[in-house]
Prior knowledge:
By secondary structure, the protein is an alpha/beta fold. It folds into two domains: 3-155, 3-Layer(aba) Sandwich (Glutaredoxin), CATH 3.40.30.10; 173-274, Oxidized Rhodanese, domain 1 (3-Layer(aba) Sandwich), CATH 3.40.250.10. Helix content is 29%, strand content 22%. It contains ten helices and 15 strands. The strands form three sheets. The chain has a seven-stranded mixed beta sheet with strand order 2-1-5-4-3-6-7. A five-stranded parallel beta sheet has the order 8-13-12-9-11. The longest helix has 12 residues, at 57-68.
Amino acid sequence: MKWTAYLRSFAFPRLLKQGQTVATVSLTAHDGRWVQSGDFVNDSSVLWIAVKDVTDDNTKRWLKSFSLASDQFQANNCRVLIVSSQSLDEIREMHRAIDLSYLVLYDPMALEARKLGLSGRRPKCRNAVLLVNEQGKVVDSQCGQSDVQHWLGHVGIKTTDRSVDENDSVTPIIPLSANETEILMEQGGVLVDVRTFSEYEPDHVPNSLHIPVDELPQRYEEIGQNSRIIFICQAGGRAYSAAEFMTSIGATDIFVVNGGMSSWTGLRNTDGVVS
């Protein structure tokens, strides 16, 4: 991160954008270990969880949900690191109280967390989550106490990472607006919603196919690889993960709805009513 951008982040704190390269950070863990994020590049993805108040009961339950999923994150070669600007005593007490499986990193002024877009204007961490891939680039970022299933969906799909030479062809993933998506569906395109059931059921695009992103590796044959396939999620991150998976297994004509359901302006089925 450039020094000028770092200074601006104090006045205008923002989440890091998808595809952005993450700065290297170094912090001390609750058990005294020194952790440097640069050690994980080309080795594993990293899920950063920033915590505003480690003494809050809702926060403890939130962190416990990630701790219970530790085997799934580990199986997908994803390290989970928690960062807090509260005192080491409070951090260690929380770690003991909920039997947390992950390291909690101590960032007293949230200076390192700021490089990750995980702090607010004050020198404290905010509740936020950031997923960084093996190449050190942002996959997705969200403010608040987002659901663990959202992040499991991201790490559950392996994409092919290979070098490309001049004789190698790459299948492009094409972004579409809501209007373009509806036109393509009328022409036979298949819209696949890769959100969770709890997200899809109350609000989705009519005639869309529902396959959660973490189920796609087992269910992709339900789509068919000869169709024009359009992926949609809530904001775009999971849809791109799904699209990358399909292209890695040879599918072509792959599209993603720009902005996902958060930006959808076409027809939608809300609680059973199409409007």
